[in-house]
Amino acid sequence: MYTKCGNVEVARVIFDKMVVKNSISWNTMIDGYMRNGGIDEGIDLFDRMPVRDKVSWTALICGFVKRDCFKEVLDRFRKMQIFGVEPDYVTVITVVAACVNLGALRLGIWVHRYVLQKGLNKEIHVSNSLIDMYSRCGCIEFARQEFS
């Protein structure tokens, strides 16, 4: 609640006083910092988090997109894969948005192949983001193929 209202400092005091922290409390703090411009603090918490899950990685990656740190999105997505964490459709949409903003069509095509391999193409939001990416990159035929 505090982080959504921009009171990250208050949330951090409460977080630091917690005896037992679970993934929800860690992820809430990471998301709160990233939403409110505390990128360094969000990264620090993420790095100190004992167990990172799909939600943790996605909170960090989405935060980078919100702050226009698109290269960091791609770097963290790569690290997510190295650590064996399977992204969900929210993560993929975020990575596609970073590809669009960087003009990284080749990487976007790789992400599209990854989506097909993992069966994430059934998610309408993923298909829409791929259509958007191809359209913005001038690949209308690829966009049309994804649409059909």
TrEMBL record:
Is this entry keyworded Repeat? Answer: yes
Q: Where are the PPR repeats?
A: 22-56
**MF terms in GO:** RNA binding
Listed Pfam families: PPR, PPR_2
Repeat: present as a keyword of the record?
yes
UniProt keywords (A-Z) are: Repeat
What processes does the entry annotate via GO biological process terms?
A: RNA modification
Which NCBIfam families does the entry mention? PPR
By what name is this protein known?
A: Pentatricopeptide repeat-containing protein
In its UniProt entry, the species of origin is given as Kingdonia uniflora
Q: What high-level taxonomic lineage is stated for the organism?
A: Eukaryota, Viridiplantae, Streptophyta, Embryophyta, Tracheophyta
